[in-house]
């Protein structure tokens, strides 16, 4: 056995998915109070929750809007897929934060927490007496994240933003699509998800700073600014040339060839940047004269269209499997363009834990993507799915705040805290739920 294969087997054993729930969580002991709706804020907390942070999510009586935003108007056992995917491993509280007693309860939780995250309309937390100025008086080490489309200060503050708007305002949509057509937004809420990821990184940085200094801080995250940050070389190019980046379809403007190509039975993604990679591709195509002419990657970019035309003509004579096989043999990158069903059922992703199977107490067997990176000793994991409104009220107020059951019942009676509205299916548990599974406290 080669040393390389032996080392791969060693790493495979370190990442054994069967040991996933026997391993510790790197963020265990970090408590986050989430006052977030839709995707942008909940995604930030979801990233941290999958690595073990205790996330307590607060909803008003209408619930998170994503309980009603669902693809093709599809619900599964009362659950909206639009809500579920950014709300794993959280404790769910129904509470009116604008109520004086709700404010007091929240403040008591702030004393016992590390992070407060909100993506409400800028200034809403301040209206409730829960601004950073006030929270840091209660807990000087608290970290508060506010994330919104246009930030909590500046000339655009308060404007409504959604993912499609953020993609456009950040100049992502105008550079996406084919040159002879109009702009295109991404097929997923990429501005939401990437901003959520960046927010989680900012929270981790603030936690690290507090560990060293003892000081908390306020994080103001503007979604549009985040889109700008992720547009690779676009900004320096525009700044120096005073020219807009043009739409280029699936073609990479910095690497040639790097594109999606049609085959006899589907589509393949193919790239060959370095001299050895491009030489391998030319060898596979039987076009070594092309390599002699365009071995240098920069020269190739200047004559990209004829090079891409030659590759496209060749792939149309091959099946996807044949092109992928040639890529493995000759050292260039090639992969079939997978659809969602392909990826979710791919044994490689399942074996690595990128796609995780688990039994949810309410919904039964689930198969979900789990956040990278894969970590050998403290991996991310999905422990449970989204929950009904107020599902964990008693756990949070009895276990964490130590309130007696009689006091919790009084708060429920006075509608300071509340559970799901029976008349709204998407706020409720599945119809076949046994009424007990998943409840932390009776």
Number of strands: 11
- Cα-atom radius of gyration: 25 Å
**Overall number of structural domains:** 2
Q: Can you count the helices?
A: 19
Order of helices and strands: HEHEHEHEHHEHHEHHEEHHHHHEHHEEHH
**Main pleated sheet:** 6 strands, parallel
CATH H-level superfamily of the largest domain:
Crotonobetainyl-coa:carnitine coa-transferase, domain 1
* Strands ordered across the widest β-sheet: 3-2-1-4-5-6
In the CATH hierarchy, what is the class of the largest domain? Answer: Alpha Beta
Multimer state: single chain
Shape: globular
Any idea what the CATH architecture of the largest domain is?
3-Layer(aba) Sandwich
Fraction in helix: 25-40%
Description:
By secondary structure, the chain is of the alpha/beta class. The protein folds into 2 domains: 20-230 and 370-427, Crotonobetainyl-coa:carnitine coa-transferase, domain 1 (Rossmann fold, 3-Layer(aba) Sandwich); 258-338, formyl-coa transferase, domain 3, CATH 3.30.1540. Helix content is 39%, strand content 14%. It has 19 helices and 11 strands. The chain has helices spanning 3-14, 40-50, 81-84, 100-111, 124-127, 132-138, 163-169, 190-213, 223-229, 234-241, 275-285, 288-294, 297-302, 304-315, 320-330, 340-344, 347-352, 393-400, 405-413, and strands spanning 31-35, 54-59, 90-94, 115-118, 143-148, 217-222, 258-263, 266-271, 333-336, 355-360, 364-369. The strands form 3 sheets. It has a 6-stranded parallel beta sheet, with helices on both faces. Helix 11 (275-285) packs antiparallel against helix 12 (288-294) and helix 11 (275-285) packs across helix 15. The longest helix has 24 residues, at 190-213. The radius of gyration is 25 Å and the shape is globular.
């Amino acid at each position: 056995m080669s040393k390389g294969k032996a080392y791969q087997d060693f790493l495979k054993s370190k990442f054994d998915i069967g040991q996933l729930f026997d391993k510790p969580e790197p963020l265990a002991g970090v408590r986050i109070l989430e006052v977030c709706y839709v995707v942008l804020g909940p995604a930030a907390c979801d990233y941290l929750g999958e690595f073990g942070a205790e996330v307590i999510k607060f909803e008003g009586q209408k619930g998170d809007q994503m309980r009603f935003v669902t693809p093709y108007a599809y619900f599964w056992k009362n659950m909206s897929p639009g809500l579920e995917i950014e709300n794993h491993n959280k404790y769910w509280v129904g509470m009116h934060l604008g109520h004086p007693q709700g404010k007091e309860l929240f403040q008591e939780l702030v004393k016992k927490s590390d992070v407060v995250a909100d993506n409400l309309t800028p200034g809403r937390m301040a209206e409730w007496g829960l601004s950073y100025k006030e929270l840091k008086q209660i807990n000087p080490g608290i970290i508060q994240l506010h994330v919104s489309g246009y930030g909590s200060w500046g000339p655009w503050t308060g404007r409504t933003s959604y993912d499609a708007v953020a993609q456009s305002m950040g100049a992502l949509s105008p550079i996406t699509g084919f040159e002879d057509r109009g702009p295109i937004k991404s097929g997923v809420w990429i501005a939401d998800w990437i901003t959520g990821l960046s927010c989680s990184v900012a929270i981790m940085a603030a936690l690290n700073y507090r560990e060293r200094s003892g000081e908390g801080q306020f994080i103001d995250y503007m979604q549009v600014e985040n889109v700008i940050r992720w547009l690779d070389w676009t900004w320096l190019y525009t700044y120096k040339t005073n020219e807009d980046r043009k739409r280029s379809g699936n073609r990479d403007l910095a690497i040639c060839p790097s594109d999606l190509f049609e085959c006899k039975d589907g589509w393949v993604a193919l790239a060959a940047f370095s001299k050895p990679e491009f030489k391998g591709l030319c060898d596979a195509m039987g076009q070594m004269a092309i390599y002699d002419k365009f071995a240098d990657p920069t020269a190739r970019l200047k004559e990209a269209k004829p090079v891409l035309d030659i590759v496209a003509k060749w792939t149309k004579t091959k099946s996807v499997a044949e092109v992928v096989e040639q890529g493995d043999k000759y050292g260039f990158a090639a992969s079939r363009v997978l659809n969602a069903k392909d990826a979710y059922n791919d044994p490689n992703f399942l074996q690595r834990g990128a796609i995780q199977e688990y039994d949810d107490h309410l919904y039964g067997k689930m198969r979900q993507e789990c956040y990278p990176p894969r970590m050998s000793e403290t991996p991310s994991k999905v422990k449970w799915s989204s929950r009904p409104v107020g599902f964990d009220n008693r756990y949070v107020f009895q276990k964490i705040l130590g309130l007696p059951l009689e006091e919790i019942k009084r708060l429920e009676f006075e509608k300071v805290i509340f559970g799901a509205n029976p008349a709204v299916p998407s706020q409720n548990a599945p119809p076949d739920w046994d009424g007990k599974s998943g409840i932390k406290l009776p």
